[in-house]
Amino acid sequence: MKRLFLISSIALVALSGCNRNQMEHDASGTFETTDILVSAEVPGKIESLDITEGDQLKKGQYIGFIDTTQLFLKKLQLEATSRSVTVRKPNVSIQVAATKDQIAKANIEKARIQRLLRDGAATQKQLDDINSQLDVLKSSLSAQMNSLTTSVQGLDNESNVYQIQVAQIEDQLRRSRITSPMDGTVLAKYIEVGEITQTGKALFKIADTRHLFLKAYLVSDQLSEIKIGQKVTVFINGKDGGQKSYAGEISWIADEAEFTPKTIQTKDERQNLVYAVKIAVDNKDGVIKIGMYGDVDFSNKSN
User: Fold this and answer.
1) CA–CA separation, 143 vs 52, rounded Å?
2) Chain segment 251-265, per-residue pLDDT in tens
3) Is 18 a member of any domain?
């Protein structure tokens, strides 16, 4: 019985000491980060995905690709079709060269008849005939030019359609490359090499673990002490039982109150409603982990 009483007393002392330690700071919370769920942008078989959980990646770093064989073959087909359209395009200058040559010869003949007519060696009918012939040739040239221009424009439009489709395939080929969208740490990998993926299916999750946020909760009376951009001090528990401090900055304050989360303690446990705040912290040494508990002081305190 005495032994049970002694154990209970020790537990109560330890608990009260813990509570006093928590009361030394203005607020407490857990560390969060900005994470991105990277998904497949095209369907296909995963041919390569060279990452493991915990890997540090740089923004834009190439880490794998989705099978592109069918896309590449489709691109070759479209390029071949586009070339065949270009081959069918008529050469306007060659097509109308004969008619222009006939017009040139008819103009020479007209000039000769005009000279003969002035000398009385030709008749007006001959001049009328050559003028009529020139009118026919010019009408024929105009019709040819109109037809050829329409044909060329139609083939150019058809070729442009294929070029746009080629550009679409090239975009899909680029999207088949898997790269990191940010500097960060791989938190989870959801697919393996050889598996089939669909557009929008999650491949991996990455987070910026160098820039974390301590999400803490305050009672309404504490709101007057803080503002956006305010410099604060953040604490985490160290290995030796002490606490390690980091510089922090308030980056967000909730505009609505919420019920106190069960895992969070506040300075005034009698209040059920609290306001969430986020404090930006640079995790340069990598000691702070996502989900770890932390404390914060809004002003310097003497020991």
Assistant:
1) 69
2) 999 988 888 766 555
3) no
Co-location of 142 and 50 in the same domain: no
Q: Does 15 fall in a domain?
A: no
Q: What's the predicted TM-score (pTM) here?
A: 0.67
Q: What does the pLDDT look like over 65-81, one tens digit per residue?
A: 999 999 999 999 999 99
Final residue belonging to a domain, choices 118, 142, 175 = 175
CATH number at residue 261: 2.40.30.170
Range of the domain at 149: 69-175
Is residue 194 domain-shared with residue 227, that is, in the same domain?
yes
What's the burial of 279, exposed, middle or buried (CB within 10 Å: 0-12/13-18/19+)?
buried
Indicate the number of domains in the chain.
2
Please tell me the distance from the alpha carbon of residue 189 to that of residue 37, in angstroms, as a whole number.
10
Residues 105 and 170 in one domain: yes
